[in-house]
Amino acid sequence: MKIRPCSLIVIFYFFFPFILFSQDSLQIKKETLTSNSIKNNEENSLDTINLKPAAVFLYGDTLFLVNAPLGTTSIVQRAEKISSKLKSITKVYDQTKDTIYLKQGNDFINIMFNDEVAYILTSNDSERSNTSLLQLANKQMHILKDSLNSKTSNLTLEEKFTLAGYFLLSLLGLVVFLKLVQ
Length: 182
Fold this sequence. Notes:
Number of domains: 2
Strand content: 15-25%
Mean pLDDT: 77
Distance between the termini: 10 Å
Largest sheet: 3 strands, antiparallel
Low-confidence stretches: 20-35, 44-50
Radius of gyration: 24 Å
């Protein structure tokens, strides 16, 4: 079967919008490190007087700022570790089954994902944020929950079959259209 040029144009115009919008809505924006940012990271880890907050990112969105180092981990390293952990949580998060909650210790609060620690907030974080530790933890937990709920979609089996049906119906319509054009 020989495909005519006009058929190729019709196919291109039919599939082009779907190619654009079929991308995963959870596109990861990769942060690149420049020599200046590496130099600033080294300065931040060495200079404890002028500690600058570092942002925790989830798919390009800033969730909150980390204001204090934790042990020997600098602020920047801590923010990167939290971002990485939260990114891994989004891969398995199911809002109907999973829970995110606070677990309080003596001088810290764990933000928990099911039975594992997502990240830790200390009294140093609350002091630098000028708020109580519990208020800071509640605020960040709600931000995390809202972000995870908006970034993940949990389709039921019925919804998946409905989407597959629409796809097959569109494919059938395309085949019929191509047969009519020839």
